User: Fold this.
Amino acid sequence: MRTLYDVQQLLKRFGIYVYIGKRMWDIELMMVELKKLHENGLIENDEYLPALLILKQEHRKEEEQSKK
Assistant:
């Protein structure tokens, strides 16, 4: 797992499609959904941690772009 698209595909396996319209909000909602999947034991740490890292990196990028 290396990209935001990969995280979207992971969520898609569970029937979770996220599109709010603003990229930052999409990423935040994906984080919530990912955490719920992990808390409920549907995904293990080997999928959860890389996906969470990708989402945090993408969120940081969006914050930096919005400041410019």
User: Anything to note?
Assistant: The mean pLDDT is 97. The chain has three helices and no strands. Residues 32 and 52 are 10 Å apart (CA to CA). The chain has one domain: 4-67.
